[in-house]
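Hi support team,

I'm opening this ticket because the web form for multi-chain structure prediction keeps timing out on my end. I have pasted the exact lines I submitted so you can reproduce it. The total is 1350 residues across two entries, so I didn't expect it to be a heavy job. Is there a limit I'm missing, or should I split the entries? Thanks in advance, R.K.
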Amino acid sequence: MAFVPKTDLEKAVHGGDPDATLALLRACTPAQRAVERASVARMLELANTARWSSPPLEWGGPPSAAQLHAVDIAIVLCGTARDVAHSRVRDEMLLSLCHEFKPRSLDGLADAMLARSPAMIRPVSKLIAAGLAPRPETDAYTLGLISLPRTLRSDAELSALFDADPGLRPALLRVFDVEGTGDVSLASSDKYNHNPRTDWVTLLKSLVDDGVATRAQLLDRTLGALEKDWPQYRAGWFSRFHGALEPTTEELRAHLPRYLALCASRIAPTVTLALEVLGRVDAEAPIGADDLLEALRPVMASPVKTQLEAALKLLDRLVAREPGGAARASDVAAMGLLHANARLQATVLARLSTWGVDEALRVRLDGLAAHVGATNRAALQALLGAPADVPPPPPAAPATPGRGPADPLADDRRLAPIADLPDLADTIAHVFEHAEDVDDFERAIAGLVAATPIVDAKALFGPVLKRAARVKGLLPRELARLLRFVAASELAPGQVGVDNGGNASPADALLVARIDELARSTIAGHRLTPLATPTHREGFIAPVALVERWQAHAAAGVAPTEAEQERALLRLAPGAAPPVLAAARALADSPFVRALRYALADDIAPGAERRLFAAAARIRHPGADDAALDARHPGLGPDGALAARYAMRLESRTHEYDGKSYTHHDVMLEARPPCAADEDAPLAARRHCGQGKARLWFRWSPFAGIDAGAIRHSATLLPSDLRAFFAEGVRAFGNNLDWWEAQWQNRAYLEPLLDPATPMTDMANLLLLLALCGKEPGQTAIAVDALVQAHAEGRIDATALAAALRELVAGPLPKLARLHKSLQAALRADPGLGELVFTLLGAAVLACPENPPRDMALLLGLLLELRVDGPRELPPALRAAVAAMKLGGNGKAIQKQLLQA
Amino acid sequence: MIAVPQIYRYAHPSFVSDDARPRLTLCTCAPDAGAPPRFFEGRMLAPRLVSQLLTAVHRVVGSRFFTPANSVARAIALADPVVTSGGGLLRFEGFSSCCSTYVRADVLPTAYDGQVIAKGSTNVDFNAPMRAALARVRDDAGLELAVGPDELTLRTGAAAVTERKVELPTRWVRGMVEVQSCQAAMRRRFEVSAPDALRFLRTLPKASTSRTPLWVVPGPAGLFTTTRASEHGVRVTDTRRLRVLEPLLPRADSLAVYADDAQQASAWVLDFGQARLTLALSPEVWRGFSGEGQALRALLHASTHSEALLARVRAALSWQSRLDAGSLAAELALAPGEVEDALQVLGACGLAGFDLADGHYFHRVLPFDLSGVEDMHPRLAAARELIAGAAVTVLEDEPFEATVRSGGVLHRVRDRAGELHCTCPWHAAHQGRRGPCKHMLAAEASRRR
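Hello R.K., no limit was hit. The queue was backed up. Here is the completed structure from your submission:
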């Protein structure tokens, strides 16, 4: 309903007459203005809404500048502080009105504005400068002060504020008292403020220059802020400011107890700062032994290598000037053995050896022995004078010759059929809440189809029918659609996911089509299990079951659609016992039966039905070419007659920003033979073919989309050959190694690697390696588990994996520090992986010894540990590669140790 | 009620004096308009350790490990820690503002040389300047501790009374109460030395792992994490919450880890000999400690059958640091099982805490006014409504099967292989890991009738 102004004030405001509005309100008493508040607030809301909303507009149209001016006048004079704080009144008008009228909205206005946003510090400052509001003492005001440099448009504006409000500059010291928030802090203010004249370091130092504050005050407040142990991002600003103050040694020494205490801070840059200060102070005049030792004790337990090194240097100096303190220095230094860096451990052990260890320390060292690296054990044993309490080296990799992927048709992988209707209801409820449970999804849809028609379905499935309206995710949605058809005869259209490029997810579309088919199939009420229903986990169908199912369909006179037949064939577990083939031969002849026999390696030629026989060929020759089919039906595309083969290449793009160069590497994975431009391509081939203009490396895969359940379900399309599935995972991971985008769904590509029945093919290996180099810790953890588990189950071909790693490391994609961390994690989970990790590290070294990538030293360090721990010898080629590397610093020292006999 | 109003009234802020021998005065909260209680005066025998423990409590209280989408990420300390004096122990408890992490520092009698003046529970003021001063405490300089207002400050009126009103979200209060029931259901899974624990914590990722539950498992090379469920391990999400333990580990003797059988919540207990720190983690950072099954069942049973018994047990509480069911049972001429159930109920009502290391409840009264909070146990309230509305129809006693009409739908609760299942989405999602749904509670109660 359109707004109709009734009172004079409403007419003046709505009529866009600010002068009339002001005149009317000038004639009112404060009490009369307060009465108008509700009406004015409503007008303000309508006008603001009209700014952004599309017709119909209650206000009558977009508000004019004059109307907004008028309503602003009215809200200042009639409204409360909160009303004004939530409006957009211009600063100058606000000041002028407040100055003249001293309206009730002025009471608490500064606090209300700052409560709304720290960015309102500008009008607040002007109110204070004009004497219209007292300076708040609140944290909100301090947050506003922190925001000040970024809310101003120029240096001149800031100077004008300072000139107008002499109390403002002293108030700036309050910024030391408040931690700030995720959005407002000194650290974020300076990070995003590109005007060095108004950054906080400059502003605060200028207080000293202008006599508003002293250096002592700034230093004291800086230390006070650091002592509060605020989170690192915010505390880091104070560490930097401390450096900018350039305190003299006298100034530092005056606060020595505080710097000593800061060594126990949980914030790493604070500890680093404290150690630097102690180093300076101690160099000029020694710090007392008791104080120094107490302060350094927590530092020796720090994970930061440079901090331990700094602390050890201080201990060196202490012992040099007070040899009597050596024992205590040893006691403090010993904790450094907990650091994972072997070279650091070596320096600690060297000092302990020089400074001596008493009996109590010996006992402690024995307790730390398990944490000392293999390369340092001899030094530790020398210190202890007896073999340390170190666990024996782990046994060699478990010998599981011939063990490999588990049988996908093992009994423990069999899917139990739905027991009864209540069980069906429970299973449906479960799938609704577990959108990635592919096995139960298949059980549920099969159970529904096989049970239909269901008497009193609405009552029986009441709870899940209610839930069905709100489920999310492809699998629950499709199950819900089928359920509603079965129970209530409603078949809503399925939803297919669409990515940013406008590409519909083919995997979604295939499942939607299948559900439509199955729904139609229930109309006749034959109560048959759908042909393509898995009998075992991860989508496998036992051949004997498929034969029996086809028989049942034939006996009922039901012909499953060609698509369902194709799906069923693709899900067959390869290989079948002779009795099964005999049973297949006994079936009445039909294209499907012939294709089934072809899949079961019967001696027949491929038939005219290209899709059925293409599916059968994938089972007859898993992961390999079918020459006979290719001759009969050439050009079917990858995973048609010919198995897909993949070639990975990188396309790199570089751009400059703010003086820095950034390079991105796009992972392109192309399948051969090339796709056929054929809408009726075999199902397995369609996985490889992009749609329209979709790029092959596009972040949302052209096939499975971004729904994790859809991704997992796509693996059941051809469960006996997951290379295409893993190839999609390679694209997904390879193009998001640095986690530029939160693609949580990608973990669905990794989970099949944990399945004992999954063979580690070339694509599986590549996916595993990429995931081990990923940034997101959850996905990396899955990859580590996959490596550990696959190794324990004998599924890893070390040579193939090493070759894949060598090729990967030769390129710019992987970050070796992450790979190092992942391999360490794998060794912690299973020390028996030593041999495999040694092989992988060797492959990484061999990748490009003439130009070792960054962080190669980390891999060399781990290689050294494994070499000593084994003990293991470096193969000649690896030794030569290590020797050829040009390394510096730590890397050089490790190289030397590696090459020692 | 979505919030519990709480007023913190302190005679002065807690502070550490600048004397040659530092003195920490922890100001206690005055109930209503009365005098603030004074619990303890004495000297800490491990000053630096106690300082670090109190700092850890303060840190957790001010932490927020999860910020809902579209919310401002302000780490607001919702409530001041609670101090309990009883049985010679001083306990300092706190809860993170996101409701996902509970912390308690227990200072044992061997940690001090002093006098316990009174027993009780109340809030205690922790503030940033105090914490900064605690960072400077050293063992050789010593530390005096007073839990209660400073007499000199009171006499001279050197500081003004501070009063602060806070609206404690019901969710927060509920979590603080229910974490005790969660702990009571836990059992020790493994124990490692402090160096092993420190080494392990350093291997944890710095980024959040809240989306990927990890199991912490003891292995031949020490503790490690895996994404696979392990019967020997403990499930944890967002391992950043464990970081508070890191600075304390160099002083600790050992770390013991506890978890409930459903592998949801976990507790990490550092033992220092003279003191302990307990850190309890909720199953996910985005949710707190939900109602543990046994407590809900016990509560339901108590409300219908044993109010008098509950009252008797409650009357026997007097700030004991260890509530032994056997001893109380003998004292009250009750069966030990009845006393255990009663203690469970009292714990779920904020009237007792649970000490994992000791394996017993202790008397502690959370200083919140819970009387107006009717939905402390929403599931329980909903179950009672169902019972009152005659929504339950028992179909079979053995195996048990019942229907429960709720939300316009007829749910089915039935016994499958000794476990109850329900057709509601909540049970389908959680499969009993978060205790019984309201339908199961109502059905069970109807069975008992």
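A quick check on our side: Residues 82 and 123 of chain B are 4 Å apart (CA to CA). Let us know if the file doesn't open in your viewer.
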